[in-house]
Amino acid sequence: MAEKKLKVAIFGISGYAGRKLLEILLLHKHVKITLGFVAPDEPEMSVEQMHPKIAKAIHLGCYNRIDWNLIEKNCDIAFLALPHVVSMSFVPQLLFLGKKVIDLSADYRFSDAEMYEKWYQKHTSPQLLSIAVYGLPELYRKQISKANLIANPGCYPTSAILGLLPLAKKRILKEKIIVNSLSGFTGAGRKPDISLLFAEGNENSRAYKIGEHRHQPEIEHILNKCGCDASVIFVPHLIPVNCGILTTMYVELTEDLSPQELYAAYSSFYSEEPFVRVMEYGTSPEIRNIAGTNFCDIGIKKINKSLVVIVSAIDNLVKGASGQAVQNMNIMMGFEETCPFYSV
Hints:
The chain is of the alpha/beta class and 344 residues long. The protein has helices at residues 16-25, 47-50, 68-74, 91-96, 113-119, 137-144, 155-170, 198-201, 215-225, 259-269, 318-333, and strands at 6-11, 31-37, 45-46, 61-63, 77-80, 100-103, 133-134, 149-151, 176-183, 206-207, 231-238, 245-252, 276-278, 296-302, 307-314.
């Protein structure tokens, strides 16, 4: 008897994260993509027309309007690859219909509505913040397995938090953390913007939103929930690649750990994690080694008695967005966590 497959809807299927979700889920043996939605100002078309790369792999029409009856009958779980503040227009009704939701926007990442509203806008469903689970499996796997609403982490926070987590959980980080991140252009989304034109970004690099980026409070918020009260100085940069994030973190420790102890802390913490790879001590990760994968590579190096440099690398569209979303779905549904990325 054929297995009954999980029916999946993708909201925002025309964007970079939506397209990456489509590509990953097409390979998932437990999933059937049943619905695709685009913005109201986008034309309705087949997914093959929208993403010719996957032509013949799936035959699916994409809607620019919401039909809740259609969703109720043809969806078990919804991925919302939508802009910030747009997702919360759909989440309450999806939950009311009994659907599981994985939201790739920031709308449910903060447990404090005031913090969200300081950096975004007025929250229209703050009552749901208490039931949303922050979708970082390496930190909240148990809670994810029981959740109906997942707040998928941001790409920069994923790279930074995974790099800092072993030391944050040991509560040996001093009060200030410097996070310097380099990102490919797909991290800015698929939108018309002069600063994102090829001629502007090629053979160029620049810092932006220094100390003002919305991911800075997200990093602090999760570290604080781990018992780490350090403040974060976050400086993002754009580099001329399509996908990938390389994050360098500068931290001071309250304990003098030897290089061996430092390496042991990381390798032990992530020893059972299928998508985190701790490099040999003193070796730095590279974007090309994680591009197109759901891995996070982490390198560590002690500089002096208290100063440690941590470097992490992820693909911003995979572990930083859609891949992590599928990893969360696997945990929620009891599927193999590594499916369809690799088999163990």
